[in-house]
Each structure stands twice: as structure tokens, then as C-alpha cells.
Write a structure and sequence with these properties.
Blueprint (H helix, E strand, L loop, with lengths): L9 E10 L2 E11 L4 E5 L6 H8 L7 E6 L2 E2 L5 H7 E4 L11 H6 L14 H13 L15 H14 L4 E5 L7 H18 L2 E5 L3 H7 L2 E6 L2 E6 L1 H4 L2 H8 L2 E6 L6 E6 L1
Parallel strand pairs: 3-8, 3-9, 6-7, 7-8
Antiparallel strand pairs: 1-2, 1-4, 4-5, 9-10, 11-12
Length: 264
């Protein structure tokens, strides 16, 4: 197995995950760059969500190991792990009648002891999370009364309230209109730039990944086909191999990032 670089906090070494006879991740090795925004791209069924769950210690491995700060992740106490790493799954669930503010407050549980009172600091953190995701005015609304995009932003606020240094987000822009997609992606980039967060997010939009992510991994059939900067990864040969599409790659005239134009 390859050793994690000294600077790495989260590292997967030759991990294998499968269900019955089907391999979902196949000897996959990934070092998550600390203090960077990593985007996972790939077709449906390529193993992106499974990889996130493996990085969070929520999936049994057939082989290999995931480590956080050099410790096997499955050996860490769950509360301690939740203080350092937060996972927002693709389809999170909560009762429809829970108020948004109460949902966001659940993000504080890893930091609170049994029988301790809700503190002003807890409230400030939750208020800031709701402000950052633009749901301040929805605080008293029940979750079931929200649109899909509003619910998604409420879940993201709960994740931010957890105050973990590492955020694992499975399709965080699902259900959001284009304006709110850009708002959330800009927020994630600010969290990396200004707060030093490490973010790994499953995205489906190649151009969003190219514009906002520092590091991109292309997955296909449980393997990483290519990883690196947008300029090194968003290439016609890699995109054809991974997505079975023909592409033309242009440069954005404003900031020079690659722009993918896809053809079937």
C-alpha cells in the first residue's frame, strides 16, 4: 500500500468495496488535498457516493484502509470523528415537521455533552450557518413545507453548523436553481479560501467542477481515471473515456478556466 503524504489528513489506500460479487470500488487510492476543494466527477454507478461513505468510515471495506491523521478511520470514536469530519449524503432524511432551526441545530450535537445546556455560542454558529445559506427567514418553517432547493440549503446549513474541518458533500447542488447553485459553490470555495476547510464534493456539472474546484477526480467503474487540476483533467481524451462523449474544450475568456462543450 502507498503511504499518505505527510501533509495529508484523509487518505484512502487501495480500498475495495463491493456488494455480493459486484465491485463498486476497485483498489482505489486517493489522497484528499488538505485545505482544498476536491470535486468527484463520473457517470452514474461509477462509485462516487460509495467513495464518500468510505471516506467517512460508513462503508465496510473488503480490502485497504481509510485513515484520518494517520489513524484507521473505523477505530475512531464516532463523536470525535464527527467533530472533524462531516458527511452530507445524497438523500438525507428528517421528520417533515421539524423546524429548520431545529434541523440546523442538530449539527451541534457532536460538540455538546450529555445534559449540557444550549449555549449562546451554539446559537451564534447556527445563525451564521443559516445566514451563509440564505435561509434566515425560513428558521421557523417546517422542513416539509420547503421546496427541494430550500431543503437542500437547510441540510447544508446543518452540515456547516457541525464546524468540522473536512466536509464530504454528495451532490450539494441537487434541486437548486442556477443562482443558488452558484451561491453554494461560491460559499464552498470561500470556506476553503477563508477558513481552510477541506471539501470533497460529488458534482455532475463538469464546468462547475472546472470553475470552482482546486482538484478534480474522474471516476469510472470504481477506479480513478485521472486526477489533478482542471487544466490537467478536463481533456477530451479523459472525458471520452469516462463519460463516452465527444467534447470540445474552450477557455473561458474571463478567467481562463476550461469550458466543456459535450456532444453525444
Amino acid at each position: 500500500m502507498t503511504e499518505a503524504p505527510a501533509s495529508a489528513r484523509l487518505h484512502a489506500r487501495a480500498i475495495e468495496v463491493g456488494y455480493r460479487r459486484r465491485a463498486v470500488l476497485d483498489e482505489l487510492t486517493l489522497t484528499v488535498p488538505p485545505g482544498r476543494f476536491t470535486a468527484l466527477l463520473g457517470p452514474n454507478g461509477s462509485g462516487k457516493s460509495t467513495l464518500l461513505r468510505a471516506l467517512a468510515g460508513l462503508t465496510a471495506l473488503r480490502a485497504g484502509e481509510v485513515t484520518l491523521d494517520g489513524h484507521a478511520i473505523h477505530t475512531l470514536p464516532r463523536r470525535r470523528l464527527a467533530q472533524q469530519l462531516s458527511l452530507l449524503p445524497q438523500t438525507p432524511r428528517a421528520p417533515d415537521d421539524i423546524p429548520v432551526a431545529d434541523l440546523v441545530a442538530q449539527g451541534r450535537y457532536p460538540h455538546r455533552r450529555l445534559f449540557t445546556r444550549w449555549s449562546p455560542q451554539d446559537q451564534l454558529i447556527c445563525n451564521e450557518a443559516m445566514r451563509l445559506t440564505d435561509i434566515d427567514e425560513l428558521a421557523t418553517r417546517p422542513l416539509g413545507a420547503l421546496s427541494g432547493g430550500q431543503r437542500q440549503r437547510a441540510w447544508i446549513a446543518m452540515t456547516l453548523a457541525q464546524c468540522a474541518d473536512i466536509l464530504l458533500l454528495d451532490e450539494p447542488t441537487t434541486y437548486l436553481d442556477i443562482a443558488h447553485q452558484l451561491d453554494i459553490l461560491n460559499l464552498l470555495r470561500r470556506l476553503v479560501r477563508e477558513q481552510g476547510k477541506t471539501i470533497v464534493a460529488v458534482l455532475h456539472d463538469i464546468n462547475h467542477a472546472a470553475r470552482f474546484a482546486d482538484h478534480i477526480c474522474l471516476l469510472k467503474e470504481g477506479r480513478i481515471i485521472a486526477s489533478g487540476s482542471a487544466d490537467g483533467v478536463i481533456r477530451p481524451d479523459y472525458l471520452t473515456e469516462v463519460f463516452s462523449i465527444k467534447t470540445a474544450i474552450l477557455q473561458d475568456p474571463l478567467d481562463g478556466v476550461p469550458v466543456c462543450i459535450a456532444r453525444r
